[in-house]
Design goal:
By secondary structure, the chain is mainly alpha-helical. The protein has 6 helices and no strands.
């Protein structure tokens, strides 16, 4: 029986999945951290200020959607739209934010699955100089914010 052949694109897809859904060596993935965050907790500002979990989720979705545009060579989303309040305070806003996060992930996953090794060396705008660098940055970005969210959840739950 032969071993499956792994390409760099497949490895990046695997890492993207692990950082988003689970199985990452560093601890809980993004969706694992968000699993039991309710709208009330998502809207609370952390002690000392800073972005809410809701704002971070919208920011992560924006970043992955922008990465897709960069990979496709399309004009990226307006950076002024990043960190814009997406929360209208309605009960469904948190559900919509999580759905947008899921959609942005699926879109990025689909984009990466279409890449071959040569495509990873292609230049992209406003990021690391290559698609590979952009994708590595997205992995780091998602892990960074998952850690932030995990700490905010712990802080907020310990305050109650």
């Amino acid at each position: 029986m032969s071993k499956p052949q792994y390409t760099e694109s497949k490895t990046l897809l695997d890492q993207l999945e692990r950082s988003f859904r689970g199985g990452a060596w560093h601890g809980p993935a993004l969706t694992e951290v968000l699993h039991d965050v309710d709208p009330s907790l998502a809207r609370q500002s952390p002690p000392g200020g800073g972005h809410t979990i809701f704002e971070m989720v919208s920011h992560i979705a924006f970043s992955m959607t922008s990465a897709c545009a960069r990979i496709a060579g399309e004009p990226e989303d307006n950076p002024d739209d990043d960190w814009k309040p997406q929360d209208d305070g309605s009960p469904d806003a948190w559900i919509a934010a999580l759905a947008a996060l899921e959609q942005s992930y699926r879109q990025l996953h689909a984009s990466v699955s279409e890449l071959n090794g040569d495509a990873l060396d292609q230049p992209v705008s406003h990021a690391d100089p290559t698609v590979r660098g952009l994708l590595m940055g997205i992995l780091q970005h998602n892990a960074y914010h998952a850690g932030q969210i995990m700490q905010i959840v712990k802080l907020m739950r310990n305050r109650s």
